[in-house]
Design brief:
291 residues; alpha+beta; 9-stranded mixed sheet; 4-stranded antiparallel sheet; globular
Amino acid sequence: MNLRRLYEFRSIIQSNKFPIIIESQLSWENINFNQNEPNIIWDYLRNGTKYLNDKIGSILSRKGFTVKFAGVFVHQKPKVTRIYEWNNCSSDKLNCELGDLLTVFLLVDRNKNLLFQTAFVSQAKKENRIDNKCQRCLYEFDKVFKFPENMRRDISILERHLPEFYRRHRSLNYLILDTIPYVKYIPFEADIKVNWGFIIYQMLLGLNGLYFTKYLPRNDYIGWSRIIWDLIYFTGKSRYRNVYRGNVIRKFLDEFNEFDNYNKNFLEGEDKEGGGIPILFIIVQDKEQGE
């Protein structure tokens, strides 16, 4: 990765800080909050990304960079299982959803090869409270979880290790979906709130979300990068009949086509039993990098 180009892109972002923050917050303005959480997420990935492209993508796409926001929605999210041996937080049940939305930042070259990438997972809540103790324990106390048994045909090792606690605020959070959505960092009781516009600004700078590897990790690695690749892969499986685990990000990038074509900003999984997680992609292409 060319650091000079990375700093040049960050300069573009910093010089447009306030339009990015304001317009990113306004991207929720026409979303119907009288729906349940999954439908609100669907609405945002379909219509909020269009707003982001119209208002932000167009002003940031210059000096050889193209910025695009895109959404992928799936209907069925797999539940994970808490492993009690690794935690000191008790809950009534062991199974809960890992999250409701995966936000992914991708910096790619002209050939759509990954240069830099970060991601975080959010639990969406319509109110500023948590009524699911399993989810809270998973995010704030647990070290390990297991994917469901029916995924064993795709992944031989079901256990996954969550990031260390000092890095967890960059990887797991709560998305509070009131009329002015914001992110709430863990632990929940600390009550640290950041508006959605500033989260998008930080993601564009590469300063939010946790880094994950640009290649599919080896089979015996079960940390953060594997979690992100797993989630994107299972989301891809709900859309594509045949998709290679290490090529699923490229598959999405190819379907979103040219990044300055904002008409293609939303995809929906066709297999409602395929699993995965809804994804917000923030894609930046540097057309001056790559052979």
